[in-house]
What does this fold into?
Amino acid sequence: MSKPVVLKVNSATKRFGGLLAVNNLDFEVTEHEVLGLIGPNGSGKTTVMNLISGALKLSSGEIRLEEKIVSDLPAYKISQLGISRTFQLVKILPTLSVIDNVISGGVFGYHRMWGENAEETALHLLKKVGLAALAFKPTEQLTYIDQKRLELARALAGNPKLLLLDEWLAGLNPTELQIGIELIHSLRAEGRTIILVEHVMDAIRSLCDRCVVMSSGVKIADGEVAETLKNPEVIRAYLGDSDA
Amino acid sequence: MIKITKDEIRILLYMVVAVAILACLPLLDQGYILSLGLTIVMYVALCTAWVLFSGPTHYISLATAAFFGLGTYVVGIGIDVLPFPILLIIAALIGGVVSGLVGIATLRLSGVYFVIFTLGMAELIRQIVTWIQTNFTTGIGLYVLTDFSEAHIYWMLLALTVLIFITGWLINRSRLGFAMRIIGNDETVAAHVGIDSAKAKVLLFLISGAYIAVIGAILAPRFAYIEPPSAFNPMISFLVVIMSLMGGTRTLWAPLIGVVPFTLLFDMVSARFPNHSSILLGIAFLLIVYLIPDGLIGRIEGITKRFSKKKERTHE
It folds into this structure.
């Protein structure tokens, strides 16, 4: 492969007591690639996201960000090295204003800024996600999709090498979903490297270059999206056996 | 840097005026009132330094007496050898180093363990000092004889209090203050935006500990004779917590509102019932925690909020 590899997951394994949540997982993400990480509920997708961002520690295996092993680092260091994320259950900072929420993503992370520079960048990002009008409002007033937009802006504030979106489109109504998909499209057009955990198949089809399919903690398919989704094993994982 | 707002300039002016007025106290009275004023300024300084750390982190530190005592002892040991200002700097350094080490050892612990650890540590340091004095020196106490009058000590403490306030204000505007606000909101988010929360907490604890040590150092000449039970008096730790909680811990100046009435009340009570002050202190603690968990500031804010809501409703 000619494109540089941004993230490489090598036989990653995570055990929670007796439960094997992620089993010997291998995959990689190259620069400017949008990778979809999909699979039925409980297949270990979010666990993988947590392992990459450092929220959880691997039981064995390793994860490398551009050659550097990051799987033994604490979350804050991984963030400083250039991996940003959003959370499956939205986590905004309720006592901070909307703009401060965004700035928080860019002060201590990969690309750092402070003062007026930070404010400008944050305003620019808020405009991008469609929240410019609410910049100086308290976060209490935000609707669910606006909270998700805010989280995305925060994740982008550090200008990360790799962006992890954990079910960022979940829970949106059809109109909002359209807006959301367009937003991620624009990130893709910017050339960002993204891993997307998602249940919305339309989004996977239109956004991803490639997808990795997991089932019960194991990778069952990895490849170009349309092809992978036709894979009999993937269909079986989602729909069960034909006689079921 | 973030611009200074008009509000901040106004507060600064108020502060200058207030400090100027307070600085005149020794000119009016050199007796009981000055002595009471000195005690109040001491607790304002201690509580503000305490809130510097405990406010944003919500960790209750009972190590105040330990840092205070260390500062006092630095002056006790060095007063005949080194000039006073240098002793203050040494006190700050020792207070900072010890609180930094304690922070590294304990701030990964959750709240309850931290409280117990700090209480135990204050006691440990006191016992070590006692042990060293009984085994290696001739007496238990140290004499601190200086030319300082109560007025001098009062002025020094007042200046230090101003310095603590300025430090708090600067921290609030800094990345450290911003990091603390994020940590206070959500520690998981803090980690994922790149904040080393342990380091931020240790840094704050260190600053707080250094200031408390300097307060102890400044007060050493007032004691004239220092020994471990008075320098490392755990009562100081408890009083600081009670007064701070009574005022409120969310802003730097909130403890002020707790310290002044509490010191006056406590002074009256302990003059009348000298043998029951501990009991009364305990009752005060319970009442504050049960009745005003957000401090007087929280109460005042609550009332003003309700008031403005009522206004809104009548407008509708």
